[in-house]
Design brief:
Layout (H helix, E strand, L loop, with lengths): L12 E2 L2 E2 L2 H14 L12 H16 L25 E3 L7 H4 L3 H8 L9 E3 L4 H14 L3 E3 L9 E4 L4 E5 L6 H16 L8 H10 L7 E3 L2 E3 L5 H14 L4 E5 L7 H9 L4 E4 L10 H9 L5 E3 L3 H11 L5 E5 L2 H10 L10
Parallel strand pairs: 3-4, 4-5, 9-13, 10-11, 10-13, 11-12
Antiparallel strand pairs: 1-2, 6-7, 8-9
Helix pairs in contact: 1-2, 4-5, 8-9
Length: about 350
């Protein structure tokens, strides 16, 4: 998975356990043994390519039976796309990385569809009409049986009815209406793979009720951390907040300069009590002072802070007991926030 929140090791995990430092170093040495110029020279791998090779090496050593690979960017030209999977899965497509993948949902869908393989079943989440049309055409071109997941039912006890597997009244451990959609995609994927994998309905219910994903609607005391970093994710976060936390909200917000933050601002901050602007720990981070005029149109109380710690601390000191403090805008920001506050929402070092 990518990116990581705090440590690179998070990207490569077996049975939920990130790769150990020793195993990581050993895998890098193996790669350099086969490709001496993997880090420097004309054959040098990119950061993500090297991470992908290390993951493959670790999975082989661990003897994994089922591996899940998240593409890094797009799909067609992605390093992970060297595999022939048992199933290809595409979640809802949004406008992101437009400078590389294309400026329309259709163009981005074409890049995403590059993971389709002849004869390999594919599952897609609900899509915009243009994106759905492109995915369907691409699947037909390569001969990949494609199944679309319908828009999920209203929030509540989760149910799924497939051709082979069905689930009734499951509880979802991950919060937000968008996780109902993700759960539907997950169930449909296993429904498609029911003949290849020994999965039963009780397995699905257990997985849905126990899944964890740090940095996605993650509560830490008064803080709620979410990695929403594009307009579609910002809208999903707003819907989740409206459903779970309809009271007053205070935001700690930072974003990367290459994101469509102008569209994220109105989606998130309408009715916000206050917004604390910070710079995420990334060379691509946007100077928060450039955000201030834009955010001030949506919220009357906006301040720029010199550090993430300062923004978190001020938000915690000024929030009233009925306010939730939402940290969002970048996974890099969420990762840094998780290092600054403990699981009870207390500033570390206090």
């Amino acid at each position: 998975t990518s990116p990581h929140l705090s440590r690179f090791n998070e990207r490569i995990a077996v049975d939920g356990t990130p790769i150990a430092d020793g195993d990581l170093g050993s895998a890098i040495e193996d790669v350099l043994g086969h490709v001496p110029g993997a880090i420097e020279g004309p054959e040098a791998l990119t950061y993500f390519e090297l991470a992908t090779v290390i993951a493959f090496q670790h999975f082989v050593r661990a003897g994994v039976e089922v591996g899940v690979l998240e593409t890094g960017l797009g799909g067609r030209l992605d390093a992970t796309n060297v595999v022939v999977p048992v199933c290809s899965v595409i979640t809802r497509i949004a406008l992101d990385h437009t400078e590389i993948l294309g400026s329309t949902l259709g163009e981005i869908a074409r890049e995403k569809a590059g993971i389709f393989k002849p004869g390999v079943p594919a599952v897609s989440g609900p899509q915009d009409r243009e994106a759905a049309r492109v995915l369907d055409r691409a699947a037909r071109e390569v001969g990949a049986p494609l199944t679309f997941v319908d828009d999920p039912p209203a929030p509540g006890a989760f149910s799924f009815h497939g051709e082979t597997l069905s689930v009734e009244g499951a509880s979802l451990s991950l919060s937000g209406p968008h996780q109902v959609e993700n759960a539907s995609i997950t169930c449909k994927t296993f429904d498609v793979l029911a003949k290849a994998l020994p999965v039963r309905p009780e397995h699905l219910k257990t997985g849905l009720s126990s899944a964890t994903w740090p940095g996605r609607m993650e509560r830490r005391g008064r803080f709620l951390l979410d990695g929403a970093h594009n307009p579609n994710a910002a809208s999903a976060l707003r819907r989740a907040l409206d459903a779970a936390h309809p009271g007053p909200r205070r935001f700690v917000f930072g974003v990367l300069a290459d994101k469509d933050y102008a569209s994220m601002v109105p989606a998130l901050f309408g009715g916000a009590k206050a917004v604390h602007l910070v710079r995420p720990r990334s060379p691509r981070a946007l100077d928060p002072s450039r955000l201030e005029p834009l955010v001030s149109r949506a919220c009357t109380s906006v301040r720029v802070h010199a550090s993430v710690s300062a923004g978190l601390r001020t938000a915690l000191e000024e929030a009233t007991p009925d306010e939730v403090i939402v940290v969002c805008g970048s996974l890099y920001l969420v990762g840094e926030a998780r290092e600054r506050i403990d699981e009870r929402g207390r500033m570390l070092g206090d």
